[in-house]
Each structure stands twice: as structure tokens, then as C-alpha cells.
Amino acid sequence: MTSANVRVLTAILGLVTANFAHGSDAKRFWCGSRDFPNEQRALQLATFSGPAGETLPIYFDGETCPSEPASCRQQAHAMPGEELIVNHVENGWACAWYRGPKSEAAGWVRVDKLAFQHVEQGEGMARWIGTWSFYENVIVISGKDDYSLRIDGRATWVGPIVNGERVTHAGAIEGDLRPTANHTHYSDKDDDCTADLSQIGRYLIVTDKGHCGGMNVSFNGVYVRR
Q1: pLDDT for 138-163, tens place per residue?
Q2: Which residue pairs, CB below 8 angstroms and at least 24 apart, start in 82-85?
């Protein structure tokens, strides 16, 4: 093998190593609290299936994570029997959202530590109806008829204190929804404020384009039914 061939092979191996858990795709799959709500095509519920006393580490996303070194570990971790939402599985890792009694996190967990659940789809529109919250954001979904729902959402962004007053921006989503199974799309009359919503278990996953309110206002998040 010539020295030129050796250099080419070394470069290829370096690229493979850099894509540790993301296959050969050029587009990297990002897993973090900001990115998690954007991926709603393959949502699943799972529980940590470890024995009593064991914890499930949640790993940061990054160029060298997830991996086993402690530097990739988040402080948050799941306990046996606790629930996680999974939106992507690849090469032994699952991109998961965890919401426990004391912490909340999105990141990579080992697939072999999870027990995936069968989720009942629910009847009609009932699965959507209720009051959903994500920190200060609140979304209320009510029934309208056999095929549509009514959504009324409020989101806020709280900024720094300027001239003695706290900067606060607000946003709203108001209108009708026509769900198909566990997914629905919202758009205002100008098609400016848009959002995608998916429902699974006790969760409502929402992603928008950032045009539904004042500066920095977003409905992105994983909401829990009150």
C-alpha cells in the first residue's frame, strides 16, 4: 500500500469514528432539549428496565458524545420504572426526553436499558383534550366537533431587568385543529405562526417556527397534561 493510500484510509477511518452513533449520513442527528421537539415522526414511550438501585445515565449531545467517559454524562438520570419519550434510535443509542420528580433532561441513553411500551391510541379526539403545561407555557385544547378541536395557547419569555423593569414578551396560538391520529398542524390565517403537535401518553410535544409572539417567545417543548 502506498503512502498516499495510507493517508486516504486514515482520513476515512477518522470520519467513521467521528460519526460514532450517527451512521454514514452527512446530516448529523442532534439530540438536546432544543432539538428534541422537532422530531415527531417516530415517538415511543419507554421505561428504564434496570434493577432497584441502578440509575440510567443521560448523555450530552456533541461531537464526542454520547460515550462512556464521565464528561459526557448529565447530572439528570432516570430511576428504574421511570418513563422516557424516545424520538430516535440509532446504533444502540436512543434520543430521549426524561421528566422526573426533580429534574428534566434530553439526551442519549442506551437502548438496551429500555423497555418500550405499547401506547393505546385513544378514542376520537379525547386524547387531545385537556390543559397542557411546559414551565410557564400553557396550552388548552377543547373539543369542537367530531373532526376538529379548538386550541388556545399562551407562551412567555422572561428576560433581564431593564430600567428597573423585567422584560417580558408574550405569544399566543388560537384557532382550530384537525388531528390525524397522534399528529396535527396549526397555522394562523396568515400562515406565519405555525406549529406541529404530537400526542403520546400523558405528553404533548410541540414545535414552532418562532413566529408566534414577541422576540424569543417559543412554544417548543414537551408538555404534560395537568
Answers
A1: 999 999 998 899 999 999 999 999 99
A2: 82/47, 82/48, 82/56, 83/45, 83/46, 83/47, 83/201, 84/45, 84/46, 84/47, 84/48, 84/109, 84/114, 85/43, 85/44, 85/45, 85/46, 85/200, 85/201, 85/203, 85/205, 85/222
